[in-house]
Amino acid sequence: MGTEQNSIDHSAHHMPSRRERLRAFMRLKSQRRYLIGGIAALGVSTAAFAGAFANESNSPDVVKLGAGKASVEAEPLTAYQPRPTPSATGEPTPVTSESPMAGGEASYYGNELAGNRTASGEVFDPQKLTAAHRTLPLGSKVRVTNPRNGQSVVVRINDRGPFHGNRVIDLSTAAARTIGLIRSGTGRVNLALMLD
């Protein structure tokens, strides 16, 4: 009986071998991956449902009544009639689309460069929404988005650069302030070329 008790106590305090610990660790790591993937999928589907709900809530409930229509809202039905498009009124329809570009690190010009000539020949004004890019044609418009806060700004390319590090665009002070890069000085951004 004493021998049996010793063997039971001994097995209860058995330390798992290195291989068993490694297997358990790998199993936990795999489960963690599935958990993170599931949370990400849940976040994406929640955002999709929220977007669909927002779009749904912005449209009025209009129902058919006999040969006509009626609004379920307190507003008269005419409030929900589609507005005439500019082409119907004879005005040209402005068409602007965006073409995503490779993003990267952005920095900004400080006030110390105010008054200097840019590659386009104009005088640099840190309060205008302008930027420098190595290859885009001067005068191009680019949407710069800070993915950390979702803020974006459209800038006009009027200079060449940046020529240091792996930076893809140099913004004016005003543009950097608009998307929240003033504090950090640099930050990762997404770029999209504005097409007319």
Overview of the molecule:
The structure is a single chain. By secondary structure, the chain is α+β, with helices and mostly antiparallel strands. The protein folds into two domains: 13-81; 97-195, Beta Barrel (Barwin-like endoglucanases), CATH 2.40.40. Helix content is 30%, strand content 26%. It is built from three helices and eight strands, in the order H-H-E-E-E-E-E-E-E-H-E. It has helices at residues 2-12, 18-58, 173-178; strands at 62-65, 68-71, 97-108, 130-132, 141-145, 152-159, 167-171, 186-195. The strands form two sheets. It has a six-stranded mixed barrel. A hairpin with a 2-residue loop joins strand 1 and strand 2 (68-71). The longest helix is centred in the first third of the chain and has 41 residues, at 18-58. The chain is elongated, with a radius of gyration of 30 Å. The N and C termini lie far apart (91 Å). Mean pLDDT is 76; it is low at 56-63 and 69-83.
